[in-house]
Amino acid sequence: xxxxxKADVLASLFVGGMIPFIFSSLAIQAVGKAAMAMVExxxxxxxxxxxxxxxxxxxxxxxxxxxxxxxSIKKMMLPGAIAIVSPLLLGFLxxxxxxxxxxxxxxxxxxxxxxxxxxxxxAWDNAKKSFEKGVEINGQIYKKGSEPHKAAVTGDTVGDPFxxxxxxxxxxxxxxxxxxxxxxxxxxxxxxxxxxxxxxxxQKNEIKPVAVATKTNPATTVDYK
Length: 225
Prior knowledge:
The protein starts with 6 loop residues before the first helix and ends with a strand. The protein has 5 helices and 4 strands; from the N terminus they run H-H-H-H-E-E-H-E-E. A hairpin with a 2-residue loop joins strand 1 and strand 2. The relative contact order is 0.13. It is elongated and about 80 Å long.
């Protein structure tokens, strides 16, 4: 039975609660870097390849696909490593009880983070799309190209990675860490049992009655030592 009041279990609980935030920040950062690399490539092609806007020039599609594929693999190596390595470190360094606290913190934090990011990202995306039909703000109708629409587009740069990348990946993060923990659980149990069996058993100082024979009544006098 896990005791939340133990120092290592409580510390692992807080560490687990931080993992979804670290994972989410790395995922959003990866999306931002990949998007900027894609924008720079598109700008380069517009400058160097004539006739793209007129339809007479052929863009280099494969380079854009390569940027997206490379970013999806390389940029997500660190978040994936965190999801796999963190349960291993907590389990083998602090034991199964600390690992249980770690998973509890990661699960609670990850579920809340996933729900928040999916809803917030969808709200930002819908706010941007609502300007296609026009949005009334303080009695005035604003459509595409207006300043409120530009602000909504800026907000959607955060909303898209929220609802498409970081939010859905919380489910994968929780399941991956739980599966890794289940795989190493038998080994952790054996290590924990071995440590308990090797630990010295403390002997308590018990007061035992000892019969002492005397001349007056040799059978009834008792001395406690």
